Every structure is written in structure tokens, then in C-alpha cells.
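This part of the workshop introduces the protein records we will be handling. The question running through the whole workshop is how a given chain folds. To make this concrete, we reproduce a full record directly below:
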Amino acid sequence: MANDKQESETEAESADDETEREGERVMSRAEGAGILREVADGVENGTIDIEGENGFMVAVPEHFELEVEYEVTDDEAELEVELEWQMEDGEPVSADE
């Protein structure tokens, strides 16, 4: 099992110019809540700023699609929160209301 100090981050770029950044680590509820608050503040302000070695900034449009998914199996539970929007010429585009 992973400990609090273990961290995994990846960045991948595909042939169709898609970039994906992902990181995961084990943390306390308080640490996780703090990160989620930073993301929520960034959404509200229009820019999410993820710090760290593989950090990045994301411009968030005024309107976007939000998906929340909860999945339980015999040995694992997963909660995913996904924000999605269209991009045009490298810029975020608000979703239709």
C-alpha cells in the first residue's frame, strides 16, 4: 500500500495534439479538501493553477459541463468529478446553457 509521501504524476501527448496530465497520491481528508478548495476557487475565478513539478494552469470558461460519478465494487469505491468544455484555437469556449 502507498504511503503519504508517494506521488505519481504523468504527462502524455498523443499524435492528435492531445495533452494529458495526471497525478495521484495518498493524502489525508484535510489535505484532499484543501486541494479541492483550491480547484473550486480556481473554477470560480476562471483559472485553475496546479503547482508542483508537473504543474499547469487551466483557463475555465464561464459555462462548462460538470459530471460527478460514484462507483462501488466489492473492494473499491471511486468518486470522479469531471469538468469539460470545448476548445477553439487553444482557448476555452463556454458551453451552451
Q: What stands out?
A: The chain has a mean pLDDT of 84.
